[in-house]
Write a structure and sequence with these properties.
Shape: globular
CATH topology of the largest domain: Aspartate Aminotransferase, domain 2
Order of helices and strands: EEEHHHEHEHHEHEEEHEEEHHHEEHEEEH
Number of helices: 13
Helix content: 25-40%
Radius of gyration: 20 Å
Structural class: alpha/beta
CATH class of the largest domain: Alpha Beta
Number of domains: 2
Largest sheet: 7 strands, mixed
CATH architecture of the largest domain: 3-Layer(aba) Sandwich
């Protein structure tokens, strides 16, 4: 036995360019899954490739206690782009590591242990982040998990007010749930979370692993709600597919974050790729493009398949289509007969997370394919 964790798909991918992937037979696939949102500026963007190659020639790696320009550049870029005053940066290798760090930092800064998380939330697969992940499918094989976690209904302000108290270190939640089914936070909900945390001195941790770096139409989804968290976590698209995560913190969290570390925190090559990715996102105003093209995509989907599905929801280029039968059954036909790659989000939701560079004509092709497959 060799690889055994992933159920491999019947496609051997050889290269990618822009919004497309190509298999070993040269067939072109329009990538509307982006491997769970990790290619916001498209596959193999020339500036990202050049930045990584240039850094490879100078320095592959040195641990993070030695300052290097590539890492410092990313620190500065993330601090400048952070929402509000969430400008202290910890770099790691993945979203789950970013959330693990966020939980540790919040517990250290508050001296408390209780963490409030939400139903349908997904925060990672390591033991702490998994304890904050709601679905039994992910949790049960690995129990017992870390203790001190309590779940409340996502989107219910009163449930948050009742759960957060003087023992609460943090509330951890997504501004729009991804794995849980593409569920946007209701209007006023994040404001209620902010108020509850402020009232008891707890940290508000916003998981922007999937929603961040422009996907929902703002650089950070939380900006669309007018709320500044105490901690923001990001990963996936931040380095165009190279392994990178980041935990951004307010001063009061960073000042008493406790002992933490990672051998590969802020590798120079990955930092160079991340800085280039963020530069492209900002210079080409890809969040605004995601908002405009995402509105177009949802409008066209509603016209083409709205009567055949339960709901179409999302923001920007993070779109969920809740179908009447299992979403997974649609994906092979969509890929093999129409050359479109997409993702599930639970059993009943088909998830679209394309690169933010997609055009209306790409959306038209996907809508046409989905209309045929869903009907």
């Amino acid at each position: 036995m060799s690889g055994f964790v992933f159920n491999e798909k019947p496609l051997r991918i050889e290269r990618g360019e822009g919004p497309y992937l190509y298999d070993d037979g040269g067939r072109e696939f329009l990538d509307f899954g982006a491997s769970y949102a990790v290619t916001p500026v498209g596959h193999c963007h020339p500036r990202v490739v050049e930045a990584a190659q240039d850094q490879l020639e100078d320095l592959l790696y040195v641990q993070a206690s030695y300052p290097v320009d590539a890492r410092d550049d990313l620190y500065d870029r993330l601090a400048a782009l952070a929402p509000g005053d969430v400008g202290n940066v910890w770099l790691c290798n993945s979203g789950t590591e970013a959330n693990e760090a966020a939980l540790k930092f919040a517990r250290s800064a508050t001296g408390r242990s209780k963490v409030v998380a939400t139903t349908r939330g997904f925060h990672g697969r390591t033991m702490g982040a998994l304890a904050a992940t709601w679905k039994d499918k992910y949790r049960e094989p690995f129990e017992p998990l870390a203790g001190g976690f309590e779940f409340v209904d996502y989107g219910d302000p009163e449930a948050i007010r009742e759960a957060v108290d003087g023992d609460t270190a943090a509330v951890l939640l997504e501004p729009m749930q991804g794995e849980g089914g593409i569920n946007p936070a209701p209007e006023g909900y994040l404001e209620a979370v902010r108020e509850a945390c402020d009232g008891h001195g707890a940290a508000m941790i916003v998981d922007e692993i999937q929603t961040g770096v422009g996907r929902t139409g703002d650089l950070w989804a939380v900006e669309g709600h007018g709320v500044t968290p105490d901690v923001l976590t990001t990963a996936k698209g931040i380095a165009s597919g190279l392994p990178m995560g980041a935990t951004l913190c307010r001063d009061w969290i960073a000042e008493d974050a406790g002992p933490h570390g990672s051998t590969f925190s802020g590798g120079p090559v990955v930092c160079a790729a991340a800085t280039a990715t963020l530069e492209v996102l900002v210079e080409e105003d890809l969040p605004a493009r995601a908002a405009e093209v995402g509105d177009y995509l949802r409008t066209e989907l509603a016209a083409a398949v709205g009567g055949d599905v339960r709901e179409i929801r999302g923001r920007g280029l993070m779109v969920g289509i809740e179908v009447k039968r299992g979403a997974n059954r649609l994906l092979p036909t969509l890929a093999m007969e129409h050359g479109v790659l997409a993702l599930p989000a639970g059993r009943s939701v088909l998830r679209l997370l394309p690169p933010l560079i997609v055009e209306r004509e790409h959306c038209d092709a996907v809508v046409e394919a989905l209309a045929e497959v869903i009907s």
